[in-house]
Amino acid sequence: MDKFLIKRPRFPSATNTHVLNLNSAADSNAFIPDTNTPTQKRANIEFNPDSIISDPGARIPIDEYDVNIRDQVRRAYIAKGPFRPVDYTFPKNGDSRTFQANWFGEFDWLEYSIHKDAAFCMWCYLFNPKRADNSGKNAFTTTGFKKWKKALNKFRSHIGLVGSSHNEATRRYQAFKNQKQSISHVFSAQGHEIEVDYRRRLTAVLTVIQLLLRQGFGFRGHDESSDSLNKGNFLEILEWHCENNVGVGKASRSNAPGNCQLTSPKVQKELVRACASETRSLIFADIGNSFFTLMVDESRDISLKEQMAVVLRYVNKHGEVIERLLPTFIYTVLKFFVG
Hints:
Elements: H1 25-28, H2 38-45, H3 70-80, H4 103-106, E1 110-113, E2 118-121, H5 122-127, H6 139-143, H7 151-159, H8 165-177, H9 182-215, H10 233-244, H11 246-251, H12 265-287, E3 292-300, E4 306-315, E5 321-326, H13 330-338
Antiparallel strand pairs: 1-2, 3-4, 4-5
Helix pairs in contact: 8-9, 9-10, 9-12
């Protein structure tokens, strides 16, 4: 601890400030005053930013600093940045594997300890939240990680999902680094999460709609209430999709905003029309300037409305005969071809 502090003399005979040298055997056993004494409390407040240890394996935990100077310690470490040795030959472990310097470019939080030959996370060291899910996950803050064979997988696992401890520490780091914009940063982060969740819900709904269109199944059910045993193909398949996809499930159903209408009949029809438009565009692009024929048939339903079906028959670029069924809004299609 004395390495990071400018101590006041405890005895009248002391005239020089003592600085702890970690490389000295004598200093490693040096007497550290009781932290409960008023003298030591005053010394804690007099933090010297020039004497912090850069190597993450030799640092003291951030929580051991006096609460009044922790922000000063964090600013000093942020100013220095993650500890990354330059032109250093990383030693081999028992599997003849070494730490790779190019990992620094992929993970901005990553730093390396020469003292322990291990990898650490600077953001988690400075802002690691005290949470229940942190139990057993202190390898990147205290002991260090040194199993290089599966290093990349472990690094990505350490980052985790949006709500992981590492991402929480990263958000705290960004807010602390840009304190004048911390409020806007928080709102921006929340806005990004809302956008990600919306994209997941929309993608799930489109996936189900594409499946039903491809198979020619109906969408609606006779009873789509919450306590219905069969809500129809669309809602039942979407429910199954949410149950088997954790990411979609967390953003959908009861976790979705109350004003979300992606499952409403109106939005279903709009998405179906969008799929039909994309399908027509692909068919027309495949035909290009080639010749084609039309096969037209119509029938009258029970409401005396005539439904017309049109099939386009043509030869594609690979010499294959293709037949494509077009929707009932054929008049627009014929006008497109015939003019």
